[in-house]
Amino acid sequence: MADPVPVSDLPTLSLLYKLGRITPADDLEPAYPPNANYNDKISVIKRDITTLAIDSIVNAANTSLLGGGGVDGAIHAAAGPGLYDECEELNGCETGSAKITDGYELPAKKVIHAVGPVYWAKKGQGKPAELLAGCYRTSLELAVENQLKSIAFSALSTGVYGYPSKEASEVALETVRKFLEEGKGEDLERIVFCNFLQKDEDAYYKNVSKYFPPAATAESTTKDKGTSTDATQLAAKLPNPPATAPKEAGESPSKKQKTEPTTDDEFDIVDREEAQGADA
Q: Where are the annotated segments for Disordered (predicted)?
């Protein structure tokens, strides 16, 4: 396993704006006013979520919670058989919700298993955005309830579940912004959008300024304010993106992980062989 990456090494949105890594699009009108404190809590990164030394990571799970392909399989493989055993006791999870377990052999203390919607199965019912928002909100609530200070989200439902990355990023960003506006995330010190695929990072870079626009320099409370560190040194803090796809789980050390749940017909749409090699 790669060396764990501490939260302190993850760039905040304030830093990404300062370095010009994210530039607000001229045609994108902010939906919320600037808030420097929020921008100091938010990170947008591209890396393997299993390497984060953080209080909690959010897994793109299926309704069985027993593992699958892509990021789901990688998390189960990195966590070891203890994660499977605990998930087996949870009796699955409904789409649009989430459940929490220990992190076991992961550098993360906890894993929050969120079950995103299969986009094409729910689109006709007008429910995909509602269900996806439920994943993000429930995950945030679980983090707060368990007194966790940091949480990293994988890009839920944007793999074989077919949710367009642009739309999914907007649901995620707006749900987090509303949660903070309601005062429910005051104890959260870092909220990370951790992308593995370039299309997902591109979507967050495009849309983040709509929900978390840059704050004026004078208002900034970032930890980088007041230091003499120049932009080159700050840029060195940014993590390198992953160079390879997530390691497939295959067989866990003691249990065979399931690719699909057996209790929810909607997942029958997902091709089994394709699902084993892709992120949910």
A: 218-280
Indicate the residue type of 199: K
At 88-146, the pLDDT tens digits run 999 999 999 999 999 999 999 999 999 999 998 766 666 999 999 999 999 999 999 99
What are the phi and psi torsion angles at 274 (to 5°)? -70, -40
Q: Residue 191 is part of a domain; what is its CATH number?
A: 3.40.220.10
User: C-alpha distances in angstroms, 168 versus 82, 117, 159, 160, 256?
Assistant: 31, 11, 11, 13, 30
Residue 71's domain comprises 5-267
The CB density around residue 143, as the number of other CB atoms within 10 Å, is 24
pTM of the model: 0.82
The chain-wide mean pLDDT, for the chain, equals 83
Q: What is the pLDDT of residue 259?
A: 36
Q: How many domains does the chain have?
A: 1
Token reading at 202:
């591109």
CA angle 48, 55, 20 (to 5 degrees): 55
Does residue 272 belong to any structural domain of this protein? Answer: no
Q: For residue 119, which phi and psi values (nearest 5 degrees)?
A: -60, -50
